[in-house]
Amino acid sequence: MRGVDFSKDGALIQACDTAGFLKFFIAKGSRGGEEVKKSQDPDAQWATLKDVKWHTHSCVYGWATQGCWSTYDDGCDLRAACRSHLAKGELPSTQLLATGDSYSRVRLWRYPAATAQPCSADYRAHGGGGTGGVVFSCDNQRLMSVGREDGIVCQWQVDTSGGAPLDEACTEDVLTGAQTHDLRDTKVSGALPLFLPSVERNE
């Protein structure tokens, strides 16, 4: 499994696996544990499952993460996803989505990342094997990422105080190579929110 999430009302579970499937299950009542299938369960309102409010979002597949995947097959595989927490009084449009992939990137998106080629800020800290997991702290001030094979846990400070939002139109290669390196290392305050990395290595 790559992600498991409960709906806010606790009635449904969404889960995704390494084979590329996103599945939904009933969590409550006498039918608890049953998979929701379009052909077998017309009462489950399959067509409206995309509108279900999820307590967390850790699945790499689905409507809210479709823009995180490349429009062409470049060999990149999303390994982890985590949506920031919604504090009391905050609007859902302020939420962020962090992803980790097989290219060892930690990427930050505006949630939901459902449009074609949404903007992202890209950061690198992990070695071979890619980024294995990402999770926001309860106050959204920190993001933790872990490498799959390098034994490194990174703690990132999340700074969204300046710059334009991440939902402006852009192309997939806007933040790659030297541009990404400059954004991370020179700590420029520009068009995108900035992660300030503090790295701890497990010995």
In short:
With 203 residues, the chain is mainly beta.
Structural summary, described in words:
- With 203 residues, this protein is mostly beta strands.
- The chain has one domain: 7 Propeller (Methylamine Dehydrogenase, Chain H), CATH 2.130.10.
- Helix content is 4%, strand content 32%.
- The protein is built from 1 helix and 11 strands.
- The chain has one helix at 177-185, and strands spanning 3-6, 12-16, 22-26, 78-83, 96-101, 105-110, 120-124, 131-136, 142-147, 152-159, 194-201.
- The strands form 3 sheets. It has a 4-stranded antiparallel sheet.
- The radius of gyration is 17 Å and the shape is globular.
- The chain starts with a strand and ends with a strand.
- 31% of the residues are buried.
- The model is unreliable at 167-203 (pLDDT under 50).
Which terms would index this structure?
32% strand, globular, Methylamine Dehydrogenase, Chain H, mainly beta, 203 residues, four-stranded antiparallel sheet, 1 helix
Order of helices and strands: EEEEEEEEEEHE
Number of helices: 1
- Output the strand order for the largest sheet: 4-5-6-7
* CATH-defined superfamily: YVTN repeat-like/Quinoprotein amine dehydrogenase
Strand content: 25-35%
Which structural class fits the helix and strand makeup?
A: mainly beta
The level of helicity is: under 10%
CATH architecture: 7 Propeller
Rg of Cα set: 17 Å
